[in-house]
Design brief:
The protein has eight helices and 14 strands. It is α/β, with parallel strands linked by helices. It folds into two domains: 59 residues, 2-Layer Sandwich (Alpha-Beta Plaits), CATH 3.30.70; 189 residues, Rossmann fold (3-Layer(aba) Sandwich). The protein has a seven-stranded mixed beta sheet, sandwiched between helices. Strands 2-3-1-4 form a four-stranded antiparallel beta sheet, covered by helices on one side. The longest helix is centred in the middle third of the chain and has 16 residues. The protein is globular. The termini are far apart. 39% of the residues are buried. The mean pLDDT is 87.
């Protein structure tokens, strides 16, 4: 898989970061010159479509850069209870999610992932969660956490094929049983109602698919939603209210916000 360095210049910084997040960009960094990120080959066309001439795209020909990052990554503390670690390494946490070094790029390093981890831990401590759905599962970290916390039925759906493959590999490394599907939310045809539905997505995707997301949650179930920037929080909360979703908990990190919502 080819990787590209993308520089976004003369563009709204907040909006650029939100779009890059939605396109699964990694290592998003803001500098005086603009926003920089690492993007995989399958998302380059979307980058060009979204940013046009504002995007400078360079192929990372030196794979040693990627390899050295993977070799240097040992683990990251995602919460007080949970860490994401590579095989053979430990941070001494109660829950440790094992990922291959090459699959660790972005696993637990983004604020929205950490926010979701915190809310997942909280809801599992307070309620008997038996089933869990992760929409847009990425490398599978959140679904793996749910399985480790005791959910009997865990489903993860991910439209990106590379991320889907990583989810399966990481689940195997953690010896947990997860049903991983290469699917988008619109194609996910299931009448099963989950105790907890988690979606760490771009706010626009949440807005456009809120009905589909909610339909997978049963009565007295919970939604955990993130990928939402603070600037859109008021708008999103109105959408939640219009769809009979009550805010049970709201937490933030940097410019990002995550919600624990109860279904009315």
């Amino acid at each position: 898989m080819k990787l590209f360095k993308v520089a976004i210049k003369d563009y709204d910084v907040v909006l650029a970061e939100e779009i890059l997040f939605a396109l699964n960009a990694q290592s998003i960094t803001e500098t005086e010159d603009g926003i920089f990120a690492i993007v995989s080959e399958e998302n380059i066309d979307d980058i060009v479509e979204e940013f046009g001439y504002h995007a400078e795209i360079t192929l990372i020909e030196n794979r040693d850069w990627v390899n050295s990052w993977a070799e240097s990554f040992l683990g990251i503390e995602a919460s007080e209870r949970t860490a994401v670690v590579t095989p053979g390494f430990t941070l001494g946490k109660e829950i440790e999610i094992i990922v291959s070094p090459e699959n660790a790029f972005g696993a637990g390093t983004h604020p929205t992932t950490r926010l979701c981890i915190r809310l997942i831990e909280e809801v599992f401590l307070s309620f008997p969660v038996k089933s869990f759905l992760d929409i847009g599962s990425g490398s599978g970290v959140l679904a793996i956490l749910a399985a480790k916390l005791g959910a009997e039925s865990v489903t993860a759906i991910e439209v990106d094929k590379a991320a889907y493959d990583k989810s399966i590999e990481n689940a195997d490394k953690n010896s947990v049983s997860i049903k991983v599907l290469n699917s988008g939310i619109e194609e996910f045809a299931s009448d099963f109602e989950y105790d907890v539905v988690c979606a760490n997505l771009h706010s626009k995707l949440i807005e456009d698919n809120i009905v589909s997301i909610k339909k997978h949650a049963g009565e007295n179930s919970f939604l955990i939603l993130s990928g939402i920037m603070n600037i859109w929080a008021d708008d999103m909360e109105k959408i939640f209210q219009n769809h009979a979703l009550s805010v049970s908990r709201k937490i933030t990190e940097d410019e990002w916000v995550a919600y624990l919502l109860s279904c009315e």
